[in-house]
Amino acid sequence: MEIIKIGSDSLKISLCTKEANEYKLDKIDNELMKNSFLKLLLKVKESISYKAIGEKIVAEIFSGKDGGCEIFVSRVEVTESMYKEKTTEEAVKKPKQLSTIYSFDNVDKLLMAINRLHNIRYSGTSSAYYDEEKDKYYILLEDVSSKDIRYAFMNEYARYIRGSLSSLIKEHCKCICKRDAVKKLSNLL
Question: Which of 185, 183, 189, 186 is nearest to 123 (CA)?
Fold first, then answer.
Protein backbone atom coordinates (compact mmCIF):
# COMPACT_ATOMS: atom_id res chain seq x y z
CA MET A 1 0.00 0.00 0.00
CA GLU A 2 1.30 3.41 -0.97
CA ILE A 3 -0.17 6.51 0.67
CA ILE A 4 0.54 9.99 -0.66
CA LYS A 5 -0.78 13.11 1.08
CA ILE A 6 -2.00 15.52 -1.58
CA GLY A 7 -3.00 18.29 0.80
CA SER A 8 -4.14 18.75 4.36
CA ASP A 9 -7.54 17.21 3.55
CA SER A 10 -6.74 14.90 0.60
CA LEU A 11 -4.70 11.82 -0.09
CA LYS A 12 -4.08 9.14 -2.68
CA ILE A 13 -3.98 5.46 -1.73
CA SER A 14 -2.52 2.96 -4.22
CA LEU A 15 -3.29 -0.72 -3.69
CA CYS A 16 -1.80 -3.67 -5.54
CA THR A 17 -4.04 -6.50 -6.75
CA LYS A 18 -3.60 -8.54 -3.56
CA GLU A 19 -4.47 -5.57 -1.32
CA ALA A 20 -7.49 -4.57 -3.43
CA ASN A 21 -8.81 -8.15 -3.14
CA GLU A 22 -8.08 -8.19 0.61
CA TYR A 23 -10.19 -5.04 1.15
CA LYS A 24 -12.91 -6.31 -1.23
CA LEU A 25 -13.16 -2.94 -2.97
CA ASP A 26 -14.17 -4.63 -6.21
CA LYS A 27 -17.51 -5.87 -4.82
CA ILE A 28 -20.79 -4.30 -5.88
CA ASP A 29 -22.41 -4.74 -2.45
CA ASN A 30 -22.46 -1.21 -0.99
CA GLU A 31 -22.52 -2.29 2.68
CA LEU A 32 -19.59 -4.69 2.23
CA MET A 33 -17.63 -2.06 0.33
CA LYS A 34 -18.39 0.58 2.99
CA ASN A 35 -17.13 -1.68 5.80
CA SER A 36 -14.02 -2.60 3.82
CA PHE A 37 -13.33 1.07 3.11
CA LEU A 38 -13.63 1.90 6.83
CA LYS A 39 -11.04 -0.81 7.61
CA LEU A 40 -8.76 0.70 4.97
CA LEU A 41 -9.16 4.18 6.48
CA LEU A 42 -8.28 2.82 9.94
CA LYS A 43 -5.08 1.39 8.49
CA VAL A 44 -4.31 4.71 6.79
CA LYS A 45 -4.97 6.55 10.07
CA GLU A 46 -2.39 4.35 11.81
CA SER A 47 0.18 4.96 9.06
CA ILE A 48 -0.01 8.71 8.58
CA SER A 49 -2.43 10.00 11.22
CA TYR A 50 -5.07 10.99 8.70
CA LYS A 51 -8.29 11.66 10.62
CA ALA A 52 -11.25 11.05 8.34
CA ILE A 53 -13.42 8.69 10.37
CA GLY A 54 -16.55 10.41 11.61
CA GLU A 55 -16.15 13.23 9.10
CA LYS A 56 -17.72 13.81 5.70
CA ILE A 57 -15.44 12.43 3.00
CA VAL A 58 -15.52 11.88 -0.72
CA ALA A 59 -13.71 8.91 -2.22
CA GLU A 60 -13.09 8.04 -5.85
CA ILE A 61 -11.83 4.58 -6.72
CA PHE A 62 -10.07 3.93 -10.02
CA SER A 63 -9.40 0.30 -10.91
CA GLY A 64 -6.19 -0.58 -12.70
CA LYS A 65 -5.79 -3.13 -15.48
CA ASP A 66 -3.71 -5.34 -13.18
CA GLY A 67 -6.53 -5.59 -10.58
CA GLY A 68 -5.06 -2.98 -8.27
CA CYS A 69 -6.62 0.41 -7.67
CA GLU A 70 -5.99 4.02 -6.79
CA ILE A 71 -8.25 5.74 -4.28
CA PHE A 72 -8.47 9.49 -3.89
CA VAL A 73 -9.92 10.55 -0.53
CA SER A 74 -10.86 14.11 0.45
CA ARG A 75 -12.48 15.52 3.54
CA VAL A 76 -15.45 17.74 2.81
CA GLU A 77 -16.15 20.72 4.98
CA VAL A 78 -19.88 20.94 5.53
CA THR A 79 -21.12 24.50 5.57
CA GLU A 80 -24.54 25.83 6.42
CA SER A 81 -25.09 27.05 2.88
CA MET A 82 -24.70 23.50 1.54
CA TYR A 83 -27.85 22.37 3.29
CA LYS A 84 -29.87 25.56 3.40
CA GLU A 85 -33.44 24.85 4.40
CA LYS A 86 -36.02 26.11 1.94
CA THR A 87 -38.57 28.55 3.23
CA THR A 88 -42.23 27.63 2.84
CA GLU A 89 -42.53 30.13 0.00
CA GLU A 90 -39.56 28.60 -1.88
CA ALA A 91 -40.87 25.07 -1.37
CA VAL A 92 -44.27 25.96 -2.84
CA LYS A 93 -42.84 28.02 -5.72
CA LYS A 94 -43.39 26.49 -9.16
CA PRO A 95 -40.32 25.19 -10.96
CA LYS A 96 -38.98 27.46 -13.68
CA GLN A 97 -40.91 26.92 -16.90
CA LEU A 98 -39.15 25.57 -19.93
CA SER A 99 -39.26 28.14 -22.75
CA THR A 100 -39.07 26.97 -26.35
CA ILE A 101 -38.78 29.39 -29.27
CA TYR A 102 -39.43 28.84 -32.96
CA SER A 103 -38.46 31.22 -35.78
CA PHE A 104 -40.64 31.54 -38.90
CA ASP A 105 -39.75 32.97 -42.32
CA ASN A 106 -43.26 34.31 -42.95
CA VAL A 107 -46.59 34.90 -41.27
CA ASP A 108 -48.32 32.05 -43.18
CA LYS A 109 -46.01 29.44 -41.67
CA LEU A 110 -46.50 30.99 -38.24
CA LEU A 111 -50.29 30.79 -38.56
CA MET A 112 -50.20 27.19 -39.88
CA ALA A 113 -48.06 26.12 -36.92
CA ILE A 114 -50.34 27.97 -34.49
CA ASN A 115 -53.36 26.27 -36.06
CA ARG A 116 -51.75 22.84 -35.57
CA LEU A 117 -50.88 23.71 -31.95
CA HIS A 118 -54.52 24.70 -31.42
CA ASN A 119 -55.70 21.41 -33.00
CA ILE A 120 -53.61 19.34 -30.57
CA ARG A 121 -55.08 21.46 -27.74
CA TYR A 122 -51.90 23.21 -26.65
CA SER A 123 -52.88 25.06 -23.48
CA GLY A 124 -49.59 26.45 -22.20
CA THR A 125 -48.48 30.05 -22.20
CA SER A 126 -47.63 31.34 -25.66
CA SER A 127 -46.63 34.65 -27.20
CA ALA A 128 -45.79 35.84 -30.72
CA TYR A 129 -43.27 38.45 -31.89
CA TYR A 130 -42.09 40.02 -35.14
CA ASP A 131 -38.52 41.14 -35.88
CA GLU A 132 -38.81 44.01 -38.38
CA GLU A 133 -35.07 44.11 -39.00
CA LYS A 134 -34.74 40.41 -39.93
CA ASP A 135 -38.33 40.01 -41.21
CA LYS A 136 -38.81 36.96 -38.95
CA TYR A 137 -41.68 35.83 -36.74
CA TYR A 138 -41.22 34.10 -33.40
CA ILE A 139 -43.45 32.07 -31.16
CA LEU A 140 -42.49 31.46 -27.52
CA LEU A 141 -44.03 28.37 -25.95
CA GLU A 142 -43.78 27.59 -22.24
CA ASP A 143 -43.50 24.05 -20.85
CA VAL A 144 -42.68 22.60 -24.27
CA SER A 145 -39.57 20.65 -25.08
CA SER A 146 -38.27 20.70 -28.64
CA LYS A 147 -37.56 16.99 -28.11
CA ASP A 148 -41.20 16.18 -27.32
CA ILE A 149 -42.57 14.11 -30.21
CA ARG A 150 -45.97 15.82 -29.99
CA TYR A 151 -44.34 19.03 -31.23
CA ALA A 152 -42.13 17.51 -33.94
CA PHE A 153 -44.38 19.03 -36.62
CA MET A 154 -43.11 22.49 -35.63
CA ASN A 155 -39.90 21.74 -37.53
CA GLU A 156 -41.93 21.62 -40.77
CA TYR A 157 -42.78 25.30 -40.41
CA ALA A 158 -40.04 26.81 -38.28
CA ARG A 159 -36.53 26.63 -36.96
CA TYR A 160 -35.92 25.89 -33.28
CA ILE A 161 -34.19 28.70 -31.36
CA ARG A 162 -32.59 28.41 -27.90
CA GLY A 163 -35.00 29.33 -25.09
CA SER A 164 -32.36 31.51 -23.48
CA LEU A 165 -32.95 34.10 -26.25
CA SER A 166 -36.49 34.84 -25.06
CA SER A 167 -35.44 38.00 -23.18
CA LEU A 168 -33.67 39.32 -26.25
CA ILE A 169 -36.70 38.66 -28.47
CA LYS A 170 -39.09 40.26 -25.99
CA GLU A 171 -36.87 43.34 -25.76
CA HIS A 172 -36.02 43.91 -29.44
CA CYS A 173 -38.98 42.55 -31.39
CA LYS A 174 -42.48 43.88 -31.92
CA CYS A 175 -45.05 42.01 -29.82
CA ILE A 176 -47.89 40.59 -31.90
CA CYS A 177 -49.62 38.79 -29.05
CA LYS A 178 -48.27 38.83 -25.50
CA ARG A 179 -50.53 36.12 -24.03
CA ASP A 180 -52.39 33.10 -25.35
CA ALA A 181 -51.05 33.57 -28.89
CA VAL A 182 -52.09 30.05 -29.89
CA LYS A 183 -55.67 30.58 -28.75
CA LYS A 184 -56.04 34.14 -30.11
CA LEU A 185 -54.28 33.70 -33.45
CA SER A 186 -55.52 30.21 -34.37
CA ASN A 187 -58.73 31.55 -35.95
CA LEU A 188 -56.86 33.86 -38.38
CA LEU A 189 -56.05 31.04 -40.82
Answer: 183
